[in-house]
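Translate sequence into structure tokens.
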Amino acid sequence: MSRRTKSLLVSAIITGMLGITTIAYALWRDDGGVTVPPVKMGTVSFDGYGQSGTTTPQYSPDGSPVTLRMPASEILGVLDQTGLDPAPVIWRFTVEGYAQGVAGMNVSIAMGDQIGPNGTVTSLDSGSARPGTILALSTLKVYPATMNGDCSAVPDTPEGQERTIYMYDADDYMLQSPGAYAGNPAIHVWCVAVDFNHAVDGEYANEVQAIGSGEDGSFHAALDWWNAIVAYPPALDPLGAYRNRVDVAGTAADGTISRAHDIYEAMIYPDPSNEPDVTIVLTPRVTNLNSEFTSA
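Result follows.
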């Protein structure tokens, strides 16, 4: 083989390999085929959907991000939590996709915004929610489910951080390894766990002492004690106390007058129905058996 023939062959191979990445962008959910012999090619597809809110699969037409909406009603589920260590509220969403040929697919997952009923948008990039919302008083964690969509293995909360929103294994997560397409899309369930940050309001101490005497005049004594932690149900921070005073007066038959009064207070809390929805952004990325030719 001449030097010129070798040069042409190497150039053709390099051109074909570079074509894998370039053509991958044009194949997003394209049912048609493009033949570029001898390069092995195929279509790519990606979508996501939630158990509520965005329940219809949202497809990426060109590799652009997909946005899912988690309803505020799911977050408000923490208001039904009781006890000091209740189970978190779980919301699931599903990510699915495939890449044919020598390609694979990864996905990066990020929190988007809070979107209020009046259209107010608050970015969650800082890792904290808008003050005055239930989410701001809660901890939210996003993590991949285990076998059969199980979300019971909630990751531990990192210590020493002020943020209340945490992402686990969410950066460039492998959905399908390169060259592993076997006829069906890769499907993975993800979990969103929301837990209200209960603050202990106090400790109630109990002590019981019993003394008894027998027929023979002997005495027996026993002492026991226990503590109970007191915590109020989950709620937004109170707006203030509403004070009420009642005065009454009555006149008896002999003309005497009796008077009395009483004072009681009621704590006023904001309406939690204004809790914003939350968006989650899924960004796909086509990969390749040769990392040098993986698309960004």
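Note: The mean pLDDT is 82.
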